[in-house]
Amino acid sequence: MSDFWISRRVLLTGGGGFLGGFIRERLERERPAAILAPRASELDLRDAGAIRAYLAANRPDLIIHAAAVVGGIGANRLHPGRFFYENAIMGIQLIEEARLAGVEKFVQLGTICAYPKFAPVPFREDDLWNGYPEETNAPYGVAKKALLVQLQSYRQEYGFNGIFLLPVNLYGPRDNFDLESSHVIPAMIRKFVEARQRGDREVVLWGDGSPTREFLYVEDAADGIVLAAERYEKEEPVNLGRGEEISIRDLAAIIRTHTGFEGGIVWDASKPNGQPRRMLDTSRAEREFAFRATTSFADGLAKTIAWYVNDRPASRVG
Description:
This protein is an alpha/beta fold. The chain has a domain at 3-172 and 214-244 and 278-295: Rossmann fold (3-Layer(aba) Sandwich), CATH 3.40.50.720. Helices cover 43% and strands 14% of the residues. The protein has ten helices and twelve strands. The protein has a six-stranded parallel beta sheet with strand order 2-1-3-4-5-10, sandwiched between helices. Helix 1 (18-30) links the parallel strand 1 (9-13) and strand 2 (34-36). Helix 2 runs parallel beside helix 4 (80-101), helix 6 crosses helix 8 and helix 6 (184-198) packs across helix 10. The longest helix has 22 residues, at 80-101.
């Protein structure tokens, strides 16, 4: 534990979500003065008046804004307007009301989708503005990136202490396995497990399998966020990841093996690939607040598959 947390009241938005749940568990180990984690039904972040009243009543010293409207390529294509508006408006209003309420520190979670479509690999934070994001998730990425501008401008004009973190694609137990809105790892796990159970001869996957992705185990992400909240004080954005990439084709082969599916894989090239490559330069996080991911991809994937097969509540599947 650190003395930093002893007297601090922490507001965690999105505490009922996938990443937020692990952040909350990680915060509990630090024993802050209070952890406030209202559900959306208790605090509508689209309503500035509701935010103002909540901050006045609960007086947080530090806010970790993990609430977001998220999904995979399919969800981003179906709901670009919603993904832009709700992610932008929640952050813009929460940051403004936090400033007005005198909140000591604000931790904003961004997204890897904010990087330009053809950013040089590994992605360095200084390349964030050197091009437009990949089209299928650009509305989400731009909405999040606007919050970086807001925090930097508020630091310049008001001295507001806001930091901006860029987690890479996350995975782990308790992820969203709904095929309409999930990301690539939970979607593949579910498809292969269900295909094995039905005795299917093949599984159809989106794209051609050529893009690469980097994945960060969710508990490692929570560690990095809590460390940054405690130790990082600068305006520059910071990547959170492992600094390793894997092709979607290789990922599918690994998950097929681990789930025991013995059939074939069919790639539907009529569906979009998304961004061609994703891998982060993670040196700034290690240098600034000593964060380094500790869970190997093999171990994290095994834990995620085991949770889906053995421990998931039926209602979490979708």
